[in-house]
Design brief:
The complex is a heterodimer of chains A (about 150) and B (about 400).
Chain A (H helix, E strand, L loop, with lengths): L7 H13 L13 E6 L6 E9 L2 E10 L2 H14 L4 H15 L6 H4 L15 H22 L1
Antiparallel strand pairs in A: 1-2, 2-3
Helix pairs in contact in A: 1-2, 2-5, 3-5
Chain B lengths: L2 H5 L16 E2 L10 H14 L9 H21 L6 E4 L2 H16 L5 E5 L8 H9 L3 E5 L9 H7 L4 E7 L11 H10 L3 E5 L11 H4 L3 E5 L10 E5 L1 H6 L10 E4 L5 E3 L13 H17 L1 H22 L3 E3 L8 E6 L4 H10 L2 E2 L1 E3 L5 H6 L4 E5 L6 H12 L12
Parallel strand pairs in B: 1-13, 3-4, 3-5, 5-6, 6-7
Antiparallel strand pairs in B: 2-8, 7-8, 9-10, 11-12, 12-15, 14-15
Helix pairs in contact in B: 2-10, 3-10, 4-5, 11-14
Classes of the chains: A alpha+beta (about 150), B alpha/beta (about 400).
Amino acid sequence: MSSMMNDPMILRQIIMDHGEHPRNHELSQDPTYKEKHMASDSCIDDIHVQAKIEDGKIDDVRFDGVACTISTSSTSIMSELLIGKTIEEAREIIKNYRAMIDEKPYDEDLLEEAVAFKNVGKQANRIHCATIGWDGMEALINESEEHHD
Amino acid sequence: MDVQKIREDFPMLKVKSKKGHDLIYFDNAATAFKPYSVIDAVTSYYTKYSVNAHRGDYELGFTVDTLYEEARERVAKFINCEKKEVVFTTGASFGLNQVAYGYAGHILQPGDVILTDEAEHASNYLPWMNIAEQKQAKLEFIPLDEHGMITPEKVREMMSDKVKIVAIAHVTNVLGAEIDIKEITRIVHEYGAIIVVDGAQSAPHMKVDMQDLDCDFFAFSGHKLCGPTGIGVLYGKYELLEVMEPLLLGGGSNARYDMCGNILMKNPPYKFEPGTPPIEATLGMKAAIDYIDNLGMENIHKYEHELRDYMLKKMQSELDNVEIYNANVESSIITFNVKDVFSQDAATYFSDQGISLRSGQHCAKLLMDVLKTPSTLRASLYFYNTKEEVDHFIEVCKSISKESMLDVFF
């Protein structure tokens, strides 16, 4: 996988594909979903992220809103990556994603398609776009654990 | 106007982008670059005077007082009003808030109406929303026409005896449309209401004459007309300034007070200027006004509109991947989108090529209603921009697509 994931053409296609056809891009009316409104104070990105987390497992992730290609695509990839994971696994993936964005060592096998954003730091003002959905998801995970205490 | 010669006055125009591109600055509606004369005025204060204003029992203090009041006199001449009607503020936002809380907050009665519109900048909308709620007054909106304009006819339709305040921009910040404030003021005054004008986008680009407009309050910022940040002006008719309460109290704005709660305020404009002002910025703004008047506001206005026409025609004839939202509006701004590319993604691409544009909602909510888009790109021009810069912009714009906009990340 790693050689393919170093090909800029492939990475570009991944971002475009998720930007144009975002997955899990519809909010649920089911009250068991918890929701975070993530509105950037520095740009137009304004999304809602939902997660259904039960017994330490992420059953579903949804999102919707007005956002640029980078934030739509990164949130879409995040949703696919985290659905079905345990909280522990999800935290590990989020940790590695953040390390990648910060240009620190990370495990690219854990991140799958999310490695498409490894160069986002080249445009420092866009880092927030690549993390806004992930920030929302992490907050939802944190809240789910608080409820268990 | 010899634009090449003018460009020599601006150190920022020699700055290169990280990738070595010449900086093409098309975000002048946000703030303008400063000529050396302004920068020198700012540093001169710190190297030659550097003492407080309105305090001076000594030579330097007296000198600073004199310079500070000369700056007020200069502003008065610039906008054709009396010196005592010029209140120094931190910028247009403060001026508009001062009128909303300090004037409207005292005269509004429950059921009164404040009129504004959906093309306003947040600074000329949020204070009115807040004060309307506090005073149980109603905030009503003048409908925009199909070009996003506020017309005298629409204002007249909305007027009634209940309307006490009308708050509108002289030039709107998203589309750059020039609003007929003179005629609107006449209508507003027929009903005995007052008009508050947000001049942030007009004062840098056109002659603004308080006697001619006859508006009641007019607020603008220094930094958009090549002056420093942190300084602005609130003009008010003197009898209204006398009635208005200051938002802030402190040293320098009171004549005397005692510990029994008696305060005697100074007269306007001084009662609105407590604390130590940004003296260097005030002197810098004076230098900016000198610079602009020396070029001639009519020349500036004419040149900007010629350049904008050039840009508009070129975009319309050479680009098939853009949608322009204000082609029918006289303006120094072009509001547009690149087809299939979200505004912020396009702005990053332009930035990577050295072109500074604004993306987003620009603090105005008219986009969805009139423009039918969640966000736009805004290219706003000033007198130091050139046709060569526009030509380069066109070439860069040609190369943007939903595929190429990701180049900047690889």
